[in-house]
Amino acid sequence: MKKNFLYILLFILLAVATVWMLQNGEISTLKSDLKNFALTDTGIVTKIMLVDKDGNKVILERKGSNSWRVNNKYEVNQAKMNTLLETMKTLEVKSPVPSKDVNSVVIDLATRHILVRIFKGEDMIKSYFVGVQTADQLGTYMLMENSKSPFIMHVPGFNGYLNVRYFTDELDWKTRKVFDSKPEEIEFIKVDYPAMPHRSFIINNDGGQLSLIPLAEKEMQAPVDRRLLTFYVASFRSIMYEGYDRAFDMHKADSVAAMPPYCIMTVKNKNGVKNTLRIFYKGIDERTMQQFDEKTMKPLSVDPERYFALLNDEKNLVIIQQFVFGNLLRGYDDFLLNDKAKK
Asked: What pTM was computed for the model?
């Protein structure tokens, strides 16, 4: 009897020890996988490659301490870049995928995923798959490359899913900046209205001394409103376009580009960087809020709130807002103090 009791006690002790070792082994493995996903220092990252299941690929490359380019073509939207880097740094395992769901999650990851590869110089330091969100939308399935153990990942303190931060459309990564120059950086601003040459002008900046020059012959001159001129030059900071024409195709872009532009706006900086925006009238569509003339109530032919535009040599049509660009679409006479000169 006493001997049986000793056997039972020994069995219980062995069982407890086995459970303890398994639990601690699981925790250790979990911590190891956590470290495999998260980056402790995103400052060492020089390149990130994102590839979806359809073969769409973007390569984000660091070009300076706080400057990135996408596919070696466009400056990256820094806010989106910061979000991605912060996500990569703060990723944590929320829980392992339950055993009963592992096979289905792995199969789903094979058909719906973003492959993420992170580089330091030429060395790949991380590689994992980002899948879809969990049913409660509070986690995201992820799987290290060459692993068979998927995990539910999250960012502590954030209630949502993370796969939307990993995307492969290069235009969505591109910055929306059109002009972003401090007054002292500007060499000249040229605003040309092809159909209204009397409104066209150029502003030169010679060591902080601003001069207004008409691009057409003027019969009379008047004093320049220096305060308005200074304010105008200072207005070319953080000027963004709204977005892309989602009904865009190359035929439509070519058709718009073949039309005479309403305005051609150029800003050249003293470091030689020059940005030119060609602005075109945009027809009325379902997004246009004001579709009738307020006085005559007749249907409008062009959108009073938005324009099409082409930036530099890019082929993609962008949409700009009157609300943002209205103060920049000035005419020569707007800067003159003599009211008679504006008639």
From this structure: 0.79
